[in-house]
Automatic annotation (TrEMBL), chain A:
This is Electron transfer flavoprotein alpha subunit. The lineage of its organism: Bacteria, Bacillati, Actinomycetota, Actinomycetes, Streptosporangiales. Binds 1 FAD per dimer. FAD binds at residues 206, 231-232, 245-249, 262-269, 283. GO terms for molecular function: electron transfer activity; flavin adenine dinucleotide binding. Its cofactor is FAD. Belongs to the ETF alpha-subunit/FixB family. Keywords: Electron transport, FAD, Flavoprotein, Transport.
UniProtKB/TrEMBL annotation, chain B:
Keywords: Electron transport, Transport. This is Electron transfer flavoprotein subunit beta. The keyword Transport applies. Residues 26-215 form the Electron transfer flavoprotein alpha/beta-subunit N-terminal domain. It comes from Thermocatellispora tengchongensis. GO terms for molecular function: electron transfer activity.
Length: 317, 262
């Protein structure tokens, strides 16, 4: 079977969950080959990639690859596409992943599909568009299919692969080095999982009422090992940092479970969470549109319901 | 540094508040089904362009690719304070995918010239979020994207690029392509004076031939990808909604247990 390239997402030498999802997806359509860009590759990473079925690992682990905005990664992938003629390239549909996919598409004269939520025979992609209102199937018709897949689209499944390493060297062009990263600023993140990757997301909206009150949302999230999200009303009010905004102009999440507390469910909010597998809503207004989406809803005061739920979860653990 | 020639890319999109559809004949966006509005993020792009012009001098040109009715979107950007506009409009462009769109826009940008191109980071209709990166690739200039802060000093441009962990400080030099995220600024409302002035500002219409676009690179026929099927998403199965009688939290926990989340 032909090779499918999977660009590895990694932090501090650890492979991110979305990559395991992409390897799983690649395995159903061909032979997965992981592409590691940047420093940090070691035994833990190799073991992880092998566990999830990478037959090959193409290694470009020089620091230079991550010193510039996306250009080098696109160049690395373009080199591999030319040398290995893979059947497709899979990249996580994060903002950066999509940018890499876009530049790679131009370099290889190939079509690109963004935000795929599923992938089947012939690299036909499923996309959920217009805030989840329409489902489409699309495919690349020219070049090598380049597909940006949304995190949480597939459940990762282990199946051993050889993870045979092959060093790749790219000589970066000047164009790839035009935007230099001069400093990385890490803002406090805490121990919670990343919003777009999390299996469970607990979000608070205007109903939460204040920054201090977000503590009850965080407690519920922590009881479930979840990430915290917020509606735009909450981030605009300054109650929760902007990077946690879920929705059309915020992050798109597709978790197994999404809990919305004090969120009305405006279409722009739904655009960022509608593909969640299970949705729970807590809202005091029985007419709130969020209930149309909810698998389970409680009409009630979140200040009563949420703490009780947290307590109950702690009890049952 | 000379005054800057800033081009801001503004897209007309169907209003998210209305029902959006694809056309049943060719699965492209149905632009007649919904009101067209300025892509919200592009208002932030226009605002940033105006602020840079106010600080450094120069000129702001709006670039829109879209059908005739996209002229409304151009007017709004002009009313905010942009100086002039280029409207890339041709039936041959219908159905262009991201590759074709970036090709058409890059060709036009080469033709009209630029020091800085500013885009929104994502449109609300297609949401591919690839266009700024594609333009940087096609134009061979610095990609300074996902910015929540932009500073220009001489020919050096520094941005804060939003990341999962915070931000990266990124540097490049002019000419460059920038994309902005929401919260970089607060877009101004057009004033009455601005709206009146906009009516007299020059809008240059360019067809595919005038922009020197190769026919085999644009439109539905040239697209690198195709939509093969489209259907309204099946409505979610109606869920259970209970009223809190003092046990709402417990009942929610029961539901979560039944789904094995606890
Ligand atoms: C172009 C555009 C882009 C946008 N992008 C986004 C986006 O990315 N993300 C986003 O979220 N929004 C976005 N919005 C804004 C969106 O339209 C809504 O305004 C926003 O989602 C509302 O947030 P909310 O649900 O928290 O607030 P509201 O709509 O005010 O709802 C608050 C809810 O809390 C309930 N409530 C109040 N008190 C309690 C209580 N004690 N207990 C239980 N329930 C309570 C109320 O009944 C109400 O239903 C966008 C808007 C536009 C125009
Ligand atoms: C639902 C849907 C899904 C799609 N999926 C794909 C896909 O997977 N692959 C693909 O190749 N194409 C896809 N397309 C087609 C693609 O959206 C168009 O080619 C589009 O013009 C460019 O993509 P965008 O709007 O998503 O750009 P984005 O990259 O999301 O937009 C970023 C910015 O680019 C600027 N911009 C974008 N378009 C214009 C314009 N016409 N005029 C001026 N400025 C503009 C704006 O500043 C905007 O904020 C899709 C279209 C739809 C409707």
């Amino acid at each position: 079977m032909s090779e499918i390239l999977v660009l590895v997402e990694h932090v501090d030498g650890e492979v991110k969950k979305v990559t395991l999802e992409l390897l799983t997806l690649a395995r159903s359509l061909g032979t997965p080959a992981a592409v590691w860009a940047g420093p940090g590759y070691g035994e833990p990473a190799k073991a992880r990639l092998a566990e999830y079925g990478a037959e090959k690992v193409y290694l470009a682990d020089s620091a230079e690859i991550v010193d510039y905005v996306v250009g080098p990664k696109a160049e690395l992938l373009a080199t591999l596409v030319a040398e290995k003629s893979p059947a497709a390239v899979l990249i996580a549909a994060t903002p950066e992943g999509k940018e890499i996919a876009g530049r790679l598409a131009i370099k290889t004269d190939s079509g690109v599909i963004t935000d795929a939520v599923g992938l089947s025979e012939g690299f036909v992609a499923d996309q959920s568009i217009f805030g989840g209102g329409v489902n489409v199937k699309s495919r690349v018709t020219k070049g090598t299919p380049i597909i940006a897949v949304r995190p949480n689209s597939t459940a990762p499944e282990a199946a051993p692969g050889a993870a045979a390493e092959e060093q790749v060297t790219v000589t970066l062009s000047d164009a790839a080095k035009a935007a230099k990263v001069v400093e990385r600023v890490k803002q406090e993140k805490g121990a919670r999982p990343e919003l777009t990757e999390a299996a469970i997301v607990v979000s608070g909206g205007r109903g939460v009422g204040s920054a201090e009150n977000f503590a009850i949302i965080e407690k519920l999230a922590d009881s479930l090992g979840a990430a915290v999200g917020a509606s735009r009303a909450a981030t605009d009010a300054g109650w929760y940092p902007h990077q946690f905004q879920v929705g059309q102009t915020g992050k798109t999440v597709s978790p197994q479970l999404y809990i919305a507390a004090g969120i009305s469910g405006a279409i722009q909010h739904r655009a960022g969470m509608q593909t969640a597998k299970t949705i729970v809503a807590i809202n005091k207004d029985p007419e709130a549109p969020i209930f149309e989406l909810a698998d389970f809803g409680v009409v009630g005061d979140l200040f009563q319901v949420v703490p009780q739920l947290t307590e109950e979860i702690e009890k049952r653990k | 540094m000379d005054p800057m020639n800033i081009v801001v890319c503004v897209k007309q999109v169907p209003d998210t508040a209305t029902e959006r559809k694809l056309r049943s004949d060719d699965n492209t966006l149905d632009r007649d089904a919904a009101d067209g509005v300025v892509n919200e993020l592009d208002e932030y792009a226009v605002e940033e362009a105006l602020r840079l012009k106010e600080a450094h001098g120069g000129e702001v040109t709006v670039l829109t690719m879209g059908p005739d009715k996209a002229a409304d979107t151009i007017r709004k950007a002009l009313a905010m304070g942009a100086d002039k506009a280029v409207h890339l409009v041709d039936d041959a462009l219908h159905g262009s995918d991201a590759l074709s769109t970036s090709y058409a826009m890059a060709q036009t940008l080469k033709k009209i010239g630029f020091d800085l191109v500013i885009l929104g980071s994502e449109s609300t209709d297609a949401r591919t979020g690839v266009l700024a990166a594609m333009l940087a690739e096609r134009l061979g200039v610095a990609q300074l994207t996902l910015a929540n802060k932009v500073e220009v000093e001489g020919s050096a441009v520094t941005i804060q690029r939003v990341t999962d962990y915070g931000y990266d400080k990124v540097q490049g030099s002019l000419p460059a392509v920038i994309s902005v995220v929401e919260k970089i600024n607060e877009p101004r409302y057009p004033s009455f004076k601005g709206i009146m002035a906009a009516k007299k500002k020059p809008v240059q219409k360019l067809g595919a031939a005038e922009a020197e676009l190769a026919a085999d690179q644009i439109g539905l026929g040239a697209a690198w990808s195709e939509v093969t099927e489209a259907a309204a998403a099946p409505p979610r199965a109606a869920g259970t909604v209970v009223k809190d009688e003092g046990d709402g939290g417990v009942k929610t926990a029961d539901f979560l247990s039944s789904k094995k989340f606890i």
